[in-house]
Structure formats: structure tokens, C-alpha cells
Amino acid sequence: MNVREPVKVLVSNLVPGMKLTHPVYDFHGHFLLNKGVTLATGYINALQKRHILSVYIEGVAIPEDFITQQQDAIEETIRADAFASIQNLFEKGDVTAIKAVTASVENVMRELMAGKTAIGALTEISSTDAYTYAHSVDVCILALETGILQKYEKDKLLKLGVGCILHDLGKVKTPSEILNKTGKLTNEEYNIIKKHPHDGYHLARKIQPDLANISASIIYGHHERHNGSGYPLGLEGENIDEMSSICAIADVYNAMTTDRIYRKAIYSNEVYEYLMAAGYSIAGQKVCDAFLHCVTPFPVGSMVLLSTGDIGVVVQVNHDIPLRPQVYIPVRKQMIDLGSELSITVLKISEEVSEQMMAL
After folding, report:
1. 109: burial class by Cβ within 10 Å (0-12, 13-18, 19+)?
2. Does one domain contain both 23 and 108?
3. Are residues 287 and 144 in the same domain?
4. Residue 27 pLDDT exceeds 80
């Protein structure tokens, strides 16, 4: 029996007849299309108009015996609720809104503690207006996964999640023309950007005076760097609390792997390798190692181009050697374990999914 694994595809590469495996929400958290919908030209055009960047579709057929790693994803409604709650806070800025954010973090935390995983970004949007909201939720999720791996207790996890989802709150005071600038920032503009941790800290304290100290500290310290190159205080090493460092590395990873107004997203494997080499300078070796155990360079379902010239789909991650996953090649109906086939490497993640390949 064959199983079709979900694959992530750019909306610009969709063709009629592809079938969604995950619901699609817009950048307001509004439901657009349900899983199981077969995409027609009108649906694809509508997704482009709504600034949806990527969706998950039913992938190539893989023999069931080859699939040993199943993914149970966070409920899309819970992620959409978290997105809507942080958007509401940015727009209203009252204590009711911040309490709703805390409740949404608790819901996400319960999902993750139950063993569910985060697949992709919240809405896979390209709208600049919604980037901060989606980014805030993704950073929260990545940080919570890292905290769970560190065996944080529930109360500590909640404080971590709240601090991380609020980490960019200060950007409500940053002029939109600076946030959305496509060119290089001037020194003056960069100095304005650098005020957002300070602004966010004081804004959160004003909205909710009893906000946990560590949550507030994360907001203030998420741009500090282990090597002392960060801001606003230029702290280094052990002078930076661990949870701020978790937020810092999650912030960097998500920002690099997401489309921005001034550059395209960098492939997850390239960011993974960058953090393997230099992540310690951001967050220290302990936090960096823990974080890298929570993300993978080639997620299950990724289409990859191999050094043989074949295009395959990742069906299992080798956690001891994550850069060498197990890959199924549809045209050959062959599974290759790159953990043992050392002469073959992954050249890159492939964005091209042909109709012929989907039909295999």
C-alpha cells in the first residue's frame, strides 16, 4: 500500500489538481481552505492575492513500509488562535489582550508537551503587515520545543513562551517605513530599530504590571548575543539568562528561514549549517545544541535534489546525522539512506514539483 506524504510547495509552483493536506489561513487568522481540497486555478489565484507564500499538498506516493516516522502536527486552529491573539494585542494593547495571548501560549504548550510538532510557519504568508505576528508565534513554538527538551517545568515553560511571543512587542512603536524598508537601513534608522527591546519591555510592564520578571527579561534581552555583540546592553556569556538566549536563537532561525521584504528565505539546511558553525556566538553552545535538536535541515516531506541528479522526498531524519536523511526516489521506486550511502549527498532543497512526479 502507498501513502502520500505532505510536501511544502510555493504557491507560485502550484498546478491545478494538487490536493491540500493542511488547512490554509490568511494573515488575519481567517480560515481560507480546508485540508483535502483539490486546487483549481481559481483557488491558486486567490491564494496568491491573499499573500499566501506556501502550502502543504499531498505528495508523491511512497510505499507504506518505507515510512517509519509519522508527524502529528499542532492543530491549525490553535496556531491560528495564537496568531490572532498576538495581532489583537499589537492593535489594542490592553490587559485583556495580553491575557488572551497567555491563554493561547498555554494551548500551544499543551500540544507540544503531548508530543505534537510544528510543521512550517503559521500561515506561510508573504504580507509584510503580518510578518511580525507570524514570526512571534513561530519563535514562541521553537522556543517552547527547546524548553521542553531542556526539561523545563510547566510554569517555567509558560513564562518562556509568553516572553517569546511578546519579544517584538516594541515594534508597535517603530515606524512602518523603517520596518518595511527594502533597502539598507541608515545608521539612524538602525538605531531606531534597536529601541524595540526597551520599548517592548516597558510597554508589556505598562499593560500588565504583574508580568513575570523572566518573561519581561526575554523581551528586553532577545537581541543580546553570547559573544557580546548584541543590544541594548551588550551583555555576554553567562550574564545573559538562558531563556533570553533561547529566544535569540529561535528569533534568528525563524527570521532567516522566512521570506522578508528585503530578501528571500534561506533554505533550512543552510541556516542549520550556519548555526552549527556559529550559533554558539548567538546563544552559547548549550542552548545552540539544544535548539538544533528541535529543528532539522531537511524536514520530512522536503523535496531534495541529490548529487546523483535524482529528486527525492525525505521520509525519515537520521537524528545522529541530520544532514544525511533517508530519501525515497519516486522515479526509481527506491529508498536511499544517506547515513550509509556516503557517496551521495543532498545538493539542495528542491522547489520544483512537477505534475508527472505527483502522479507517480
Report:
1. buried
2. no
3. yes
4. no
The H or E element containing residue 271 is helix 268-283
Same domain, 187 and 243: yes
SS3 273: helix
d(CA 78, CA 95): 21
Rounded Cα distance between 305 and 337, Å, is 14
Long-range Cβ pairs for the range 65-71 (8 Å, 24+): 66/315, 66/328, 66/335, 67/3, 67/5, 67/315, 67/316, 68/315, 68/316, 69/300, 69/315, 69/316, 69/317, 71/117, 71/119, 71/300, 71/301
∠ Cα 124 142 270 (to 5°): 70
261 backbone φψ class: left, alpha, beta (φ>0; ψ -120 to 50): alpha
Looking at the fold, whether 89 and 67 belong to one and the same domain comes out as: no
**If we measure between CA atoms, which residue out of 328, 253, 337, 343 comes closest to residue 291?**
253
Judge if 44 and 155 occupy the same domain.
Answer: no
List the one residue out of 19, 11, 16 whose CA is nearest residue 127. Answer: 11
* Spatial contact of 26 and 125, defined as CB atoms under 8 Å apart: yes
**3-class DSSP state for residue 119?**
coil
pLDDT at 120 over 60: no
Residues 267 and 323 in one domain: no
Domain housing 23: 2-71+300-358
Q: How far is CA 313 from the centre of its chain?
A: 20
Question: 33 forms bridges with which residues in the sheet?
Answer: 24
What type of residue is 318? N
Looking at the structure of the chain, the number of domains it has is 2
Report which secondary-structure segment, H or E, holds 192: helix 187-193
First-to-last alpha carbon distance for the chain, in angstroms, is: 13
User: Which of 292, 313, 340 is a domain's end point?
Assistant: 292
- Specify the length of the chain in residues: 360
Give pLDDT tens digits for 178-189.
988 888 899 999
Task: Give the pTM.
Answer: 0.86
Classified as helix, coil or strand, 306 is: strand
